[in-house]
Amino acid sequence: MINNPEIRAYNVMIRAYGCLEGGDDTYYFKALMLYKQMLNNDIAPNSLTFPFLLKGCNRWQCGGATTGQVIHGQVLKFGFLNDVFVGNSLISLFMNFGLLSNARKLFDEMFVRDIVSWNTMVVGYLRNGEVDMALNLFRKMSRRNIITWNSIITGLVQAGHAKESLELFHEMQFLSGDDVVKPDKITIASVLSACSQLGSIDHGRWVHAYLRKNNIECDVVIGTALVNMYGKCGNVLQAFEIFNDMPEKDASAWTAMISVFALHGLGKKAFDCFLEMERAGVKPNHVTFVGLLSACSHSGLVEQGRWCFDVMKNHYMIEPQIYHYACMVDILSRARLFDESMNLIRSMPMKPDVYVWGALLGGCQMHGNIELGEKVACHLIDLEPHNHAFYMNLCDIYAKAGKFDAAKRIRNLLKERGIETKVPGCSMIEINGVVQEFSVGGSSERPMKELVSVLDRLSNEMKI
């Protein structure tokens, strides 16, 4: 017990309480009480006090945003807004709670900004789904470090902008002078993920070669990314070779290999891999079982699917999530086991979503179960009345059953509701390492002319 604690002692305790992980917000309340006690004792905070308070505030989901704004007021009152460390902590808090305008206003008003300020803004925009704003800010940066590049490349991949992330990676390669930044493991893993999304195996092979050339250690993260990339680009053998060569394999690595086998309909190999995983003493997680159940679905392995679902719940004590139920419904409905599918849906502890009902509808459509398919499709239309896919599924069920008047009625309903049924088709092809994208109704005239020219030449070759 310190009789007359100074500011340093208060800062140490506030930091300790702010950083402690707990099941509730008790520790952070203690930090706030200490701050209040400090003010009551006429001890003014310094530049270290507020970052500690704000760090704890970031983890307080219920009242963190409001409390953070109050602390912002205290920062203004005591004149620490020009402290870059305090400013960065406030920006991080505002971004964490989605207060983008607050963060940008503070950022614009900061007299002193360092690279952490810029990086925090870029990462915050990306995490809040504002990709364009993140890119605009990124382009304005006069100096970028590896954190900046990793943030923007990874953020673009996670937002589904894989092509743009690859373009930025190549831009990173051509930096010169003081701007040179060397890619690290995080960069490589993100770029490999982008290659996986695009199916760009040439880019993926180039990155793999880059790893060897620059002696970047192929640890479990990079190894797993390579397995994913080769598997999703269609080269299962290469994925398996890399997997076997990995000196250490965690649950993510095993899951990646199982998922690759599942993707290519190799259900038996997926289960062999799972059994080997168990023998290696690696505990599977909920994603592992998604891969296994997908393998069962793609390979028609009903009994194995039931076994997998049971083992997940009763042996590994993993509570099935909604996506596990969707996989299981898909397995059962594909095997015409509609009663069992419905019983499983009724037993779900959560409300079934469109993916669960959609899996059942797919089975009904496949096997011509008109009565159940009609009920499921109508329920899905009620859930998502502007999703054209459910209307078209119902039309297909009616058409296969010869109920053309009913199918016509659904098409008329689509027109009455003004729902667009034609989604532009899009194809991508990789030529000499460059991913070319073609879409129906594309606005670019030159690529379309080139495509027509190629098709004409192919047609002439076939005639010869």
Automatic annotation (TrEMBL):
Keywords: Repeat. PPR repeats lie at residues 114-148, 250-284. GO terms for biological process: RNA modification. Gene3D superfamilies: Tetratricopeptide repeat domain. GO terms for molecular function: RNA binding. The keyword Transmembrane helix does not apply. The keyword Repeat applies. This is Pentacotripeptide-repeat region of PRORP domain-containing protein. It comes from Trifolium subterraneum (Subterranean clover).
